[in-house]
Amino acid sequence: MIKLGIFAKTFRRNSFADILDAIVENDMNCIQFNMSCIGLPAMPDVITSLDTEHISQVCEEKQIIISAVSGTFNMIHPEVEIRNNGLQNLAILIKACPKIRTNLVSLCTGTGDPDDQWKPHPYNNTQAAWKDLVHSLEQALQLAEQLDVNLGVEPELANVVNSVEKARTLLDEMQSKHLKIILDPVNLFERVTLNQQHGLLDKAFDLLGNDIVMAHAKDRDASGVFVAAGHGVLDFKYYLCCLINNGFESPVVLHGLEESEVATSHPFLKRILEEI
């Protein structure tokens, strides 16, 4: 059965316990965690045993499941030193995963833009960019495989893996059971017709269905701008039906919304799931 979750950092509170209280109050019990929720950088240089004990203890007290932890950095950053620092911090996150009872880290497949990892760049579609990504993933997967942690790449227009076809190619090339897919349909289009949208979803599940371990839920308005789930043009009923028909039982995680929008987006998704 599909569960609804949320990016924990959607809620800004004075403590991690207060963040989880807000999530429970909104009738959810699973999160995509970000280290910023305990006052650390999202990609910390150090995660102490006190940090991991605190995370685990609070989650256990509040009965919250960490479905994934955010580990996004620019995996093909044009400055190799910055890229390597990101890989070092990713290794720290991967090592923390068993201690906070999660086995999935979300990744950004990177862009040639040096300042914004979510901004498209002509370099992204070159063979050199692909080689950079493969090299970074090879290093990250060595540790992930040792610790039985999955790395989730999310196809999106602004990054190297900007289509479901490229995502399939990456999975086939890497040949690792610990490399998985996080799917967010609106990261794959800006302005499309409803039929094109359905076709895109059909292709995504046809090519990637068995490797999808998490689904994200945000939306786009008619002009192509990201908005909260239920406030745009994505056919969420079709999307959720595709997940269910594919045997998907992992979390659908809300993000890209303000805290004030949770009160409309969460019931919207819950209502569709009840109708299906």
Total number of beta strands: 10
Mean pLDDT level: 97
Q: Strand sequence of the main sheet, in spatial order?
A: 1-2-3-4-5-6-7-10
Helix content: 40-55%
Briefly note the structural class of the backbone: alpha/beta
Low-confidence stretches: none
Radius of gyration from the CA trace?
18 Å
The fraction of residues assigned to DSSP E strands is 15-25%
Number of helices: 8
Q: Helix and strand succession?
A: EHEHEHEHEHEHEEEHEH
**Overall spatial form:** globular
Q: Main β-sheet: number of strands, strand sense, barrel status?
A: 8 strands, parallel, barrel
Distance between the termini: 12 Å
In short:
The chain is α/β, with parallel strands linked by helices. The protein is built from 8 helices and 10 strands. Helix content is 42%, strand content 15%.
